[in-house]
Amino acid sequence: MITVEVTHPIPALILLTIVFKCFMKSLTLSDHDKELIRLIDAQAKQLMERNAPDHVIVTTLMDFIPDVRCMVNATCEKQLDLYCREYPHFNYFLQLISQEVI
After folding, report:
1. Structural domain contains residue 14
2. Number of domains into which the chain is organized
3. 10 assigned to some structural domain
């Protein structure tokens, strides 16, 4: 149970909105999502080790983009941040596709 002492209505409302938005999203990633992150991380790492330009990384891993976007939209930001720290090459790919207009 979460309890919040309301001392000022506006900040409390903002806090509750943030908490609600996070709970509306999945707090944990599915096994499929975790495997997808590991796979993308490994493939992006290989491409980066071969000095592939960013557009090659995006086009090579393009088939993953719809699943990644769904996962990002359905997952709590804190949970996603943990995996982005653990899998830096996945994080790099995520940054690339966030910049792209696809």
Report:
1. no
2. 1
3. no
**Exposure b/e, 60-95, CB count within 10 A at least 16 = b:** ebeebbeebeebeeebbeebbeebbeebebbbbbbe
- In terms of residue numbers, what domain contains 60? 27-100
Amino acid at 100: E
In a domain, 53, yes or no: yes
Q: Is the pLDDT of residue 37 over 80?
A: yes
- The model's pTM is 0.72
The three-state DSSP-derived secondary structure of 34-79 is HHHHHHHHHHHHHHHHCCCCHHHHHHHCHHHHHHHHHHHHHECHHH
